Structure formats: C-alpha cells, structure tokens
Amino acid sequence: MRILFTRVGLADDRTQELVDRLLKWQWEDGGWNCDKNPGATNSSFNETLIPIRGLARFANITGDSHARQAVTRSADVILKRSLFKRIRDGQIIDLNFIKLHYPNYWHYDVLFALKVMAEAGFIMDSRCGEGLDLLESKKTRDGGFPAEAKYYRVDDKRLSGHSRIDWGGTSKVHSNPFVTLDALIVLKKSGRFVL
Questions:
Q1: Taking CA atoms, which of 22, 51, 75, 104 is between 20 and 30 Å from 114?
Q2: Are 145 and 102 in contact (CB under 8 A)?
Q3: CA distances from 3 to 10, 39, 73, 92 (A)
C-alpha cells in the first residue's frame, strides 16, 4: 500500500513514520526478520524483500538518504547470496526460491527478487547474474515464462491463501501471462531482452 500511496502522491506523515520504523527495525546484517528467537542473527529473505521495495520507492521519490542507505544495506543481504544461495556452501536456500510464482504475496522467489532489484536500481549488479541466468533457463517454447507453483487456492472463502481469481494457473511447459510480463520487464531492464 505504501508504494501505491507514494506513487499516486497520497503519502503523508504516516508514510514517514512507517519509513522511520523500518529504519529502526533494520537488523544489524542489513535486512529484516520478525524472529523473536534471541539467537537469530540472519535476516529473512521473505521479510527483507518487501521493505527494500517500499524504501527504494520512497527514496527515489523523496531523495531520502537514510532510506537509500537502508536499501543498499538490505539489497546486499540478498545480492551477496546470488539471490537464492547460502553463503557457507553455495547451495540453494529453499527450493521455492527458484520456482516462479504469481502472485507472490509476501513470499520470496528469484523473479520477485529480480523485479525488486530492478526497481531499486541493482539489476545491473553482477550478483544478479545467476538469478537472471536461472530465469532465462525457464523460458517456455512459446517464448513466455511459467508459474511453476502458487501460494493461493481459488474459491470464495475469505481466508489467508484463498483467492477469487485464478492467476493463470501453474505449469512447467506453458507460460503464465503474469509471470511472463514480470520476467520480460526484468530481462529488458537488465539488458538481456530488447523489444
């Protein structure tokens, strides 16, 4: 909502308060995590990506240097892991991270990460390379990109994880129009796709 409010010029003092809270709650490693375990030291990818997106938009519109610095620190949390790999052994952090989904809601995947990196101005960072390669490898025969998994169920229930909309379904061989649009935008911004 903050992105929408900022984008359409409806931001007010509450927007600044949200930004201030995000800056205050940023973890030492640069990201965010709601883990209450006192021994937790690493930020969560799921909980870091959306603040990056909101703060980057805010910084781009307002020129706020504190927000921009927070975006740079938090983007590094994800970039130094090549968007989906553990630092200690280079293995995939979570198999859901390398599957394409739409919509993501609050969940993380490599395409959503690339989209946020593009919006935040980091898509040309060489550490996006493996993610971009992975994305390109998922191109379907029809030139699109598939939704390989989903986080929703289509029905009329008003519960978490339920949607009244079928967002194009899932497949490994047929493209999904929503995933394809996001993928082509990311590839265009990265210089890998020219119209």
A1: 22
A2: no
A3: 10, 32, 20, 30
Q: Give the containing element (helix H, strand E) for 142.
A: none
CA distance 76 to 70: 10
DSSP assignment of 22-55 equals HHHH--TTSS------TT--S--HHHHHHHHHHH
CB 175 within 8 A of CB 145: yes
Query: Over the stretch 121-153, which tens digit does the pLDDT of each residue have?
Result: 999 999 999 999 999 999 999 999 999 998 776
pLDDT in tens, 44-64: 998 999 999 999 999 998 899
